[in-house]
Design brief:
The protein has two domains: 113 residues, no CATH class; 128 residues, no CATH class. The longest helix has 30 residues. It contains nine helices and no strands. Helix 3 packs antiparallel against helix 4 and helix 5 runs parallel beside helix 7. With 278 residues, the chain is mostly helical. It binds zinc ion (ZN). The site of zinc ion has 8 residues, from loops.
């Protein structure tokens, strides 16, 4: 049965592709892009090129052979060790690949073979990468957030069949600007009150990117969920090991994860919330 788009109910020309074929394509694309995402996660926070040098072991610099570079399978085959020096390869590599594949599958099951699926998949790819990078390095590289805003703009404004390109363009830019301004305001207030930085400017660009992809209403939902999750995490950390005041929480990871969740659950969640007032 064709999967109509959940937003407008349209049935695209691709709608007659069977679901199993869509899911297979999403898994293959997810593993491939997940493999590329690993390269971005390792290199971008260090400002290294994502193109050169070719994939190599981080311990012994040995180049990774093509057959050792197959997503997930190679890691299992090599039992998580470099073929040359036997150094451990982090399970993060297959996990990011599987995570990207799972998100791509969720996207095709959510909106079928539509333009919206492409938009959501690009957002998932960027948000998963940013979540992992912020968790590891407390950095949200501009090389992901700024092109992310541009990608959201182009994908939404030049969506096939969009009759209101100017209107969409104003919406995307306006939503991103308002989201950024909101977080910038909180950032400034926090600095004035606590006299130290609680958020980075990376978080501001991340929220602007989420707004460019998802619109302001869904972004507010993501922001609320992200703040709640980060506060809960800080509370658990504090009770478990009496974190020092200097411990920092990777807020961007929570914000990015909430952005991913919002793609799939924000609309029903907002509708359910509003229905309580009727
Ligand atoms: Zn090695």
């Amino acid at each position: 049965m064709p999967l109509p788009c959940v937003y407008c109910g349209c049935v695209s020309v691709f709608a007659f592709i069977p679901v199993w074929a869509l899911v297979t394509a999403a898994v293959v694309a997810g593993l491939t892009f997940g493999s590329f995402l690993n390269v971005c996660i390792v290199r971008l926070p260090k400002h290294h090129s994502i193109v050169t040098p070719a994939s190599h072991c981080l311990h012994c610099d040995a180049p990774i052979r093509a057959r050792d570079n197959v997503p997930v399978l190679s890691w299992l085959w090599l039992r998580g060790r470099c073929h040359n020096c036997q150094a451990k390869i982090s399970p993060q590599y297959p996990l990011v690949e599987l995570g990207t594949a799972a998100l791509f599958v969720a996207c095709v099951l959510h909106t079928g073979a539509t333009w919206q699926t492409l938009v959501d998949a690009v957002a998932c790819f960027l948000l998963l990468g940013l979540a992992v990078m912020d968790w590891q390095t407390m950095l949200l590289p501009d090389a992901f957030t700024l092109p992310g805003i541009a990608a959201a703009f182009l994908l939404r404004v030049f969506a096939p069949g969009n009759q209101h390109r100017w209107h969409t363009a104003m919406h995307v830019l306006g939503d991103a600007a308002i989201a950024a301004a909101l977080l910038l305001m909180i950032w400034t207030l926090y600095r004035l009150i606590r006299r130290r930085e609680g958020l980075g400017l990376g978080d501001v660009k991340l929220l602007a990117m989420i707004a460019a992809f998802l619109g302001l209403a869904v972004t507010m939902f993501a922001f609320f969920v992200g703040v709640l999750a980060a506060a809960l995490f800080a509370f658990v950390l504090l009770t478990l090991r009496r974190a020092r005041g200097s411990d920092r929480i990777p807020f961007g990871s929570f914000l990015a994860a909430a952005g991913i969740a919002a793609i799939f659950i924000a609309r029903p969640a907002i509708a359910w919330y509003l229905s309580m007032f009727h």
